[in-house]
Amino acid sequence: MKSEIRFSGLGGQGIITAAVILGRAAALYGGKHVVQTQSYGPEARGGASASAVIISDDPIYYPKVTDPDVYAIMSQEAYNKYGSHVKNDAVMLLDPGYVTSRPACRFFEVPATAEAKSQLGKTVFANVIMLGGILEATGIVSYDALEHAVLDSVPKGTEENNKRALAIGQELVRSQL
Amino acid sequence: MTDKTDFLNGNVACAEGALAAGCRFFAGYPITPSTEVAERMALRLPKVGGVFIQMEDELASAAAIIGGSWAGARTMTATSGPGFSLMMENIGYATFTETPIVIVNVQRGGPSTGQPTMAAQGDMLQCRYGSHGDYSVIALSPSSVQEMYDLTVKAFNLADRFRTPVFLMTDETIGHMREKITLHSNVEIIPRRELKEGELPCAPDENGVPGFGTFGMGHNVHITGLTHNEKGYPATDSAEIHEKLVRRQVRKIEDFRNEIADVDIVNPDAELVFISYGAPTRTVRQLLNDNPDTYGHLNLRIVWPFPDESLLAFKNAKAFIIPEMNLGQIAKEVRQHTNIPIVVVPKLGGALHTPAELLKAVEVAKTVKKPVTEVRL
Q1: ipTM here
Q2: B33 touches chain A (CB under 8 A)
Q3: B227 neighbors B236 (Cβ within 8 angstroms)
Q4: Percentage of residues in chain B with pLDDT exceeding 70?
Q5: Which residues pair with B320 in a beta bridge?
Q6: Sequence-separated (6 or more) residues with CB below 8 Å from residue B78
Q7: Of A8, A50, B294, B364, whose CB is crowded by the most CB atoms within 10 A?
Q8: Interface membership of B366 toward A (CB under 8 Å)
């Protein structure tokens, strides 16, 4: 069993952090083989940002993502780049505050940025809300593994808000299942 | 203490390997895509009693780690192609003064400032021949995050054992990808041999390596980049002393080629055999995994000195297929050691060879007759 997950959006949305957290969850707390990569260019806040995770039961040799099974899309520009050649059985989570298009594959609208602002007071939790959504939509890692990895990775004092962010993301997807 | 697992990128793993190996002095000038090595060392060295210095440039970085080494520390710097070019003068000095240092080159697209954020393997021949005069080098090439850690440890041991600069020739792909890694609580340390009382500071032992007269330990040592006698004093007009010194320094590495060699040999009975190092090894392994028992593979963890005897393991080889992220630099070296046809698979621009591209090279290799054939992807 092998899954490829593509995260894409804008620099500053926590796109790469989200991929690293998911990778960490699967590698350290899920017993899986994982490779995380990211597009790497002269980029800054507001520019395009993309990251990818491969999660597999078997060793991963070729480290680059070729045909993702799961997408988390947080900008229209990112959708334009990846949305048109999504395979039919993929699943996409998109933030409708940024993305107006909708893909041919199964998708969930996860208004992560708006919910982070309204429920947690800060948009910085949007990426963890997305992770909660991915968890609910795919079950690609266990809740415990993901929570462990989130708590490893976030600043002290933000643990409770990050756990709430995971729950918000889960609920947003659950309501569309 | 027990081993720890973590999920790190290759550059951070390299820094952790250096710390585990006892590196306590890092001097560097940050450059993409190597910067995370310096960042991690800056964060971690002060906590373990070490010193991190951000230098004014790469000439000074190389000079500082040479000085740090003579003061008795295991020392390292990290850079990419443009900085590596600037280090060449002091690399020659370190070689001729037999100074153990570790230099990490996270390769990016060149020449010149080229493609700062893109992976490449274009500095492999510069690493071997970039400084002036005749000399030999030791260079390692990791293909995973774990190997970034393990081979950095190994680089320090080789540097001290052979008293020579050792190069970790990695690339942006391996430097920036994250994988699970085991950080060992204990790693094997092979210390440099201290100069004994009564021993001349530049007189070789049975391995061709002199004892190391660490500064401040009471030895009378004189270090010079000029041709020197066994006392370490300049002796620039003696042809005999010069030739003896250069040949001894080359032999201390070349005579131990087989001891230094670190390779994986897979399916030695195969007719079509891949040779790779660094990131392209990942694609070759994918192909071997998808087509079991079809192709041979020679993976080089140590590229220099080139482990030519390992080519002989492939007794049925009809072609060697060599994917590199350059125009065929190590392929040229392979050519020197074999008459078996070579299929060069260069890839420039920053992207790793895909499995499909290697299959294209396989089709070419099946009917190849000429000594060297280049596949245009």
Answers
A1: 0.96
A2: yes
A3: yes
A4: 100
A5: B273, B342
A6: B11, B14, B26, B28, B34, B37, B38, B41, B103, B104, B105, B106
A7: A8
A8: no
**Is some CB atom of chain B closer than 8 A to the CB atom of A27?**
yes
- Look at B354 and A20 and tell me if their CB atoms are within 8 Å: no
Q: Is the CB of A62 inside 8 Å of chain B's CB atoms?
A: yes
Name residue B210's beta-bridge partners.
B204
- Does A42 sit within 8 Å of B178, measured CB to CB? no
Q: Tokens 């060392």, residue?
A: B41
One-letter-per-residue 3-state SS of chain A: CEEEEEEEEECCCCHHHHHHHHHHHHHHCCCCEEEEEECCCCCCCCCEEEEEEEEECCCCCCCCCCCCCEEEECCHHHHHHHHHHCCCCCEEEECCCCCCCCCCCEEEECCHHHHHHHHHCCHHHHHHHHHHHHHHHHCCCCHHHHHHHHHHHCCCCCHHHHHHHHHHHHHHHHCCC
What is the per-residue pLDDT across A61-118, written as a single tens digit (0 to 9) for each? 999 999 999 999 999 999 999 988 899 999 999 999 999 999 999 999 999 999 999 9
A6 reaches B (C-beta below 8 A): no
Q: What is the DSSP string of B206-262?
A: TTS-BPB--TTTT------SS-B-TTS-B-TT-HHHHHHHHHHHHHHHHTTHHHH--
Nearest to B155 by CA among B285, B37, B279, B44: B37
The domain total for chain A is 1
**pLDDT tens figures, A117-142:** 999 999 999 999 999 999 999 999 99
Architecture of domain B264-374: 3-Layer(aba) Sandwich (3.40)
B117 vs A42, A61, A62: nearest CB = A42
For helices A143-153 and A159-174, give the axis angle rounded to 10 degrees: 140
Q: Is the C-alpha dihedral spanning A159, A162, A164, A166 positive or negative?
A: negative
> Which of chain A's residues have a Cβ under 8 Å away from the Cβ of B352?
62-64
Min distance B32 CA to chain A CA atoms (Å): 10
**B282 and A33: CB-CB below 8 Å?**
no
CATH topology of domain B4-183: Rossmann fold (3.40.50)
Which of A21, A32, A62, A65 to mutate to test binding with chain B, by most B CBs within 10 Å of its CB? A62
Which pLDDT score is estimated for A44?
63
Q: Which residues of B touch A61 (CB under 8 A)?
A: 282-283, 285-286, 289
Residue A31 in contact with partner chain B when CB distance is under 8 A = no
3-state secondary structure of B47: helix
Q: Is A61's CB within 8 Å of B285's CB?
A: yes
In this prediction, residue A83 carries a pLDDT of 87
Are B286 and A61 a contacting pair at CB < 8 A? Answer: yes
Q: What range does the domain containing A19 cover?
A: 2-174
Tell me how far apart the alpha carbons of residues B99 and A16 are, in angstroms, rounded to a whole number: 40
Q: What CATH number has the domain bearing residue A70? A: 3.40.920.10
Domain range summary for chain B, segments of one domain joined by +: 4-183, 264-374
A137 touches A8 (CB < 8 A):
no
Tokens read off for A125:
């939790």
A47 in contact with B, Cβ within 8 Å: no
